[in-house]
Each structure stands twice: as C-alpha cells, then as structure tokens.
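Predicting holo structure, thiamine diphosphate bound.
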Amino acid sequence: MATEKIRGAEALIRALIAEQTEYIFGYPGGAIMPVFDVLYDYRDQINHILVRHEQGATHAAQGYARVSGKTGVVLVTSGPAATNIITGLSDAMMDSTPLIVITGQVGSSLLGSDAFQETDVVGITQPVTKWSYQIRRSDEIAWAVARAFYIAGNGRPGPVVLDFAKDAQTGLTDFDYQPCQFIRSYNPYPAIKPAEIDEAARLINQARKPLILAGQGVIIAQAEAELAALAEKADIPVGCTLLGLSAIPTDHPLYKGMLGMHGSVAANIKTNECDLLIAIGMRFDDRVTGDVNQYARQARIIHIDIDPSEFNKNVKCDVSVLGDARAVLQALLPKVEPARHTEWLESFVPCEEAERVKVIEPEIHPQKPLMNMGEVARKVSEATGNESILVTDVGQNQMLSARYYRFKHPRSLVTSGGLGTMGFGLPAAIGAKIGNPDRTVCFFTGDGGIQMTIQELGTIMQYGIDVKIIILNNNFLGMVRQWQALFFDHRYSETPMLNPDFTMIAAAYGIDGERVATREELDDAIERMLSHRGSYLLDVQIDPDGMVFPMTPAGACVTHIMLNATEKYE
Amino acid sequence: MTDKTLYTVTVYSENQVGLLNQISIIFTRRQLNIESLSVSASAAEGIHKFTITTYSDRETMEKLVKQIEKRIDVLRAFFYTDDEIVFQEVALYKVPTDKLLDDSRIEELIRKHNARILEVNRTYTVIEKSGHTDETQALFEELSRYEVMQFVRSGRVAITKSTVEHVSLFLQEQQYRQNQL
Ligand SMILES: Cc1ncc(C[n+]2csc(CCOP(=O)(O)OP(=O)(O)O)c2C)c(N)n1
Ligand SMILES: [Mg+2]
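Done. Tokens:
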C-alpha cells in the first residue's frame, strides 16, 4: 500500500500526536525552524508553550510529567539551546522522569565541521540520558520517535534526546507510524521471579521489627494502594524518601515521616534498630543513608526495584526483587501473613515526641516575632485542605515545605531530588499546573532560587497559568548559610543577598501579589492568594537565622541527629 | 585500597553509533583505566562484541557490568578472571633487516618465541607473535637488545570456557518475549 510522502518535520509532529502528545514545551531557532513551521499548521491538535529559556522548557516538562505520569516533550534548536537543556536532562535522569527532548541539529553534510550552532549533542547528552539518538534521515523519524516514547516512559523512566538534523526535517518520507512495543536489548518490565517473592515473604513473615522505605518507584508504578495494603496487613511502619512523599497519606497511622538528612527522627533512628528493611523503589541515595558503613548493619534488607543496577550499588541487600513495584507488591501480598507489631510501633513514640517538642513545635508555632518557613508551609497546606500540589525549589525552602506540607493524594510533590537544581521550581510549577489543571499548585521557593529562572513569569503571563508562588524570603542563600553557621564557624561567605522587590517584578508581568512582613498578615494574605483567580505571589519575610532541623550532617551515621544547633538526639 | 585483579569485560551490543563512548564513560566515572580494548563482530549476526580489560575488584566489576547493561542498546555484559577464559593478543615488531642478517641469533629468537615473519624488505622486517602479554613482552625485550623500530600490541580477545552460551540463550529468551506480544 502506497503511503503519502510528507516532510520529516511533519512526520515528527504527526508522530508526537500519534503518541497523544498534548503539550510541547519549547523555544524556536534556526536549526529547528522547519518543525516550528509545521507546528503552525497543527496548532489545533497540539499545544506549544513558549518558555523563556530552554532550561525552563525541560523543568516545565518535568513538572508536567511528574504530576501526570505522562512523558514531557521539549522542542528546542541546536547549539546554545541544546547546551541549555543539560541541567534539565541531568535532573530528569537522576529523578527518573520521562522526557523526550528534541534538539535541532545542523544539516548532516555539515556535521563535524563546527558549523554555525553545531554542538555534539549526542556526545554531550549520553551521560545524562537514558537514550540519545541522532536522526540523520527522514525515514528514521517514525522509528526513532516510537522508540523514544517506549524508552522514556517504560521501566525506570528517564530522559531521551532526539537530535534532529535539518535535512532530515526537510526531506520527504513515507509516514506509517507504529508505536514501539519491543526492544531486543531492553526489557523494561522483567518477569518477576517467584523465588525472590517467596524469599522476601519469608523474611517479612519472620520479622519482628520491620520498616518500609518507600521511594518514587512506588508512585511511578502506581503502587500506592499496594504499599498501604502491605503496611496495614503486616503492621509495618513506613518512611518515605523525599521523592517518595505522597506515596502514602501524611496522616496514615503507619506513616513515620521522611527519611534522610532532614527527615524525621523516628524514621532515621529506627532504620538502625529494625530487623528488616523493605526498600521499595528507592536507591539508597547518600542523602538518605548518611554513612553507608554504619547504615542498617543490624537489619536484613529486601530491595525491590525495577533497575537491577541499583541492587548492591550503595547498600548490600539480602534479597533483591527485580520488577515493577506494583507487580512485585501484588505478588508479595498474598504470601505475607497478617501481623501485629505493637511494641515495635510504640517504640517510635519517644522519637516522635522528642521531634515534636524540640523541632516541630518551635518551627510551626514559634515564640518569636519573625516567621519560620515551616509555619508558612503548614498554613498554606492546611488552607488548601491539604489538597494542593506542592512544587518546591531547592534549599531550606525545599526541605521545610516538604517537611511541613501534608499530602492526601499521590503525585502531590514535585521537587528536584537527586540533582538539587536551584531554579527548578518555577518552570516545574508551570508544567505541573498544565499537567494537572484541576488541582491548586503551590510553589515554594527561595529568594535565591526564584532568580535563577524568574524569566518564566513571562510564560505564566502569556498563557494565564495559575500558580501560587510563595517566596520564603530570608535574603540569604539560606541552606548554604546554614552549613556555614554549623560547619564553617559562621563565616557567611557570599550568602547574604540584596534582593529586588519581588512583587514589583511580578506586577511587571501582570501577576498580583503582596509582601508579607508579619505573622499577623499571613493568614489573610494566604486567603487572598488562594481565592485569587490566576497566579499570585507572596513575598514572605522569613527569619534570616532560620535553620532546617533535624539534621544529620553529610557523611554522618543516620542516628547522628541534630535537633538544633547545640543539641543532639540521644 | 583492595587488591586489584585484571578482569576481562565482554559487552554484546546492537550495532548503534556511539556505543563505545557510552561504555567508556562508565569506566571513566568509576575511575577505571581501560588497559586494552578490542571491538569486533560476534558469532551472532549484527551483534558487536567489545572486549575490555581493566584492573579492579570483584565488587566494582559487578556494579560496572550492571551499569553497562543499563545502556539501552547493550544486550549483555559480563566480566571474567583469566582462568575463566581463553584469551590471546597479537603483537607486531618492526626491526631493521640488516640487524637480522648480521646476527643469526635474531632468527633463533623468532623460532624460540613461536613468532613468524610477515614481511621482509631491504630496510625492515615485520615480525608477528600472538600470545599473552608477558609472552609478547618477553620477545619485545629480547628484540630491543638489537633494535625495535616499532612495536604494537592488540587489545585482548577472549572466549569463555563456559559450556553455556549466555548470549545465545539471551537472544532466544528475547525472541520468546517478542513472540509473546
Ligand atoms: C544551580 C545550583 N546552584 C547552587 C546550588 C547550591 N545551593 C543549594 S541550596 C542554596 C541556597 C538557596 O538559597 P535560596 O534559594 O534563597 O533558598 P533558601 O535556602 O534560602 O531557602 C544553594 C546556593 C544549587 N543547589 N543549585
Ligand atoms: Mg533564601
């Protein structure tokens, strides 16, 4: 059967539409103009969001992907645009976020000649992508796009780059799109081994002091119900990694808080007291484990993950269970016997009580005039009925909003975990709102981080996107200042910041907002922000001496927990 | 530092551009030096085989091989110690022909080392020897007493002693997986 011949640029757009792409985050330029030209004809079938910097396109696509579970699509030109996407790719690689980033490239006859705006995109991006491929001929487009979607969105998700030579955009090709269903060299969903399930079940049934560590793998696999079922059936407490937050509701009786450096006292202390760790879809990052040589040495460890290269990478496990978290938990559940671990669960209470008294109460109900980040975060969360999506930037604002926000539903937190990218938040919040328009998106950021991608206020303006922006303004690069206070003798080298009037900047973009200088103004300001139609910015003045606690210093044992600058948890 | 052993890594991959780069950056990230490298076709059609040697410890090798396998276009990767494989390298030596003629001991050397002459002309003679590194090195050292104008040793090539062909098995499994769709 003869198919019609179309130009490569059109083949790309049709392929994206065939994969149900609704949004493209992008920015045009010379080497990608044929594609943008075709896009003009397809405006009724696919929406393009013009960001203000290509880094913003990648983070917006990440925000979109993280709240929706769909693959985010980015379209940019060659050279400087391609180098601008590297941060977003690394971030998506670290945090297992499905992205397809299409970069324009000079014509194939010019490749390797240092042509205008040529960069070796495949060479640069290989280390920070799941797959990176250069399309040199129009006939490869359908195959490459199909493969890109399959790779980005299946198994452990990740970013894919398609570097699209200009002559492949203009050349003619038959268009016959077939989604990819199989790659010989890549099996995204390996079959679950019954022996591994049996062994895991045996350890769980024997355990007297089990502890579950839930990571983002639970959310990616949509295994939230199975996670809760396992925890409830065998009466197992659950700690979440930063990216695993919202995998289980914050108010679940078995939820024991966040793991790691700024996690809850109980979850960290009990890691080194449990007799069994059940790690699900998490990768034992050093921000979670602290010193690996002193991490959970007393415990048996079951590691459930879809990526075999994570097994024994950072922490040695006794049983590895390869597979999708949901499929594994479904297989495991019938073999797990109902159990009660009352004494074990009661042993969490003193830790929780110490943290409540020493850390949480002073943070959310401070007896001082200056405001804390945690109290603002808790207030905003509650004012939305704990129903909103939290997007954060990086720094103290990130840790404290993640700690004090409360989550009812999965996919309620979008944050940069593995890479810790300042500037991630604003574009990610835009993408999150587009990816889930029905939910309120509250974006917490710092005075430093917002200025790394502040130009994306223009994107908000152009598309009338509704993002609630809360700047936790301490006029400091606060997290760095905290380390300087604790470990560098209060020498505040290059961390105080002179900031602009953020409400005036917002106003220039047609975004309403206000400065909140005192606690008395806070409730009303939050109310005005949430009832406002459209984006709104709160510039909240925060105690510049504020610190994030609890804190396990980098490289220390998980049980080495500072409750404040002078007191260690004993 | 733990004791370092020479390991041979074999990687089977699809025939895609840029794979060598993808594989070598994983060695670089783990601070592993590639001692030798050879790339060729394998017994299975369209599948490339990389043979790489590096000094490391078993734990690092386990992680390395899994990270290599994680690359989409890689089919399988393995690592072996010398006793698990049959391996060989080939070395070429270029020596001045007059030295060869002047001294009959060189001819003896060639015979003793099981080497052979590939090419002779008035100026130079090219000698070839295959063997393990210590063997090709021994000949080099002996020839150096006369003169060696050029010397080169190939990367190691290796074949497993295992009675199971893991790659063929893997390909069969993938064929089965495809048929299930
Ligand atoms: C792109 C980038 N540069 C530098 C850092 C290092 N860093 C981590 S937190 C931080 C301070 C952030 O300051 P601010 O945005 O004001 O947030 P705060 O900690 O004060 O809440 C810095 C500089 C980073 N994570 N990302
Ligand atoms: Mg700050």
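Chain B is about 35% helix and 35% strand.
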